[in-house]
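## retry 2 of 3
previous attempt timed out at serialization; input unchanged, resubmitting
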Amino acid sequence: MPTEEALEEFRLYLYEQERSAATIERYVRDARRFLAFCRQNMQEQAGDDGETLQVRKRSEKSLVLLYKDKLEHKYAPGSVNTMLASVNAFLRYMGREDLLVRHLRDQHAHVRFDRRELTVEEVRRMAACGMQSRNIAGLSMMALAFTGARVSELHFFTVESVNKGIVEIRNKGKTRRILLPRQLQMLLLDYIHNRDLKEGEIFLTKGRRPINRSNFYRSLKVLARKSGVPEEKAYPHNFRHFFARMYYNRTRDLTGLADLLGHSSVNVTRIYTADPQERYLDTLEDLFREVMPEEDKDT
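## retry succeeded, writing output
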């Protein structure tokens, strides 16, 4: 069974593969959980008197499948596939391609069941509240909602890039350009002027330190409460989803949206543009009424 040292070597391998810091942490975390599950399960299988190494080797594939089954019963398909990607990457690194498992096939990927979708009115209220109080969370939120950037990419918003109106995002060995809407650019320039920022990153705390995912998340919750928006909707990635839906509804350009979001595959982008469950339910209700009309109430 691989040790903690193997996990650290795996971390270095991912770094050399130019994976993002967030991806590296997720892969290592998921691999560590997988190994912990395997250790516990192998001990349970061994019993008090202990089994032979041959029995343990023979059960390695079944352990991986058992772990997959455990994830499937606990998490949504998208989350399961994310964790399996980490596990498969670790197994490949260890030279154990024979233990790789297939991802789950989600037959309903074109339907979105998440009820935490932000509405235009909710984003408008949060933006207005943020501008009124000159809240950095408000401007940061608008940067995500109107460019599709990830929260981990906010540090690419610099004085220099805002002045040019083009933010260059460098991630995983790739570079993509984000064009700032003119009105957003003007808001950011006004913010830069008021804070007397001369160069470098613009989204800074009061102590002039770059905001991170943790303090940004907390600030969003506060902004949501002040705006009358459900707090469960106020998490950074939801604004990236909002941008993707708005852009796709306006253009129907899935390939262009994939480029803007930095996706290497449009299959990933389709998750962002999935139609809400309610739309499909309304259609089903209409079909039912068409076939089975209500009886005349006067009869």
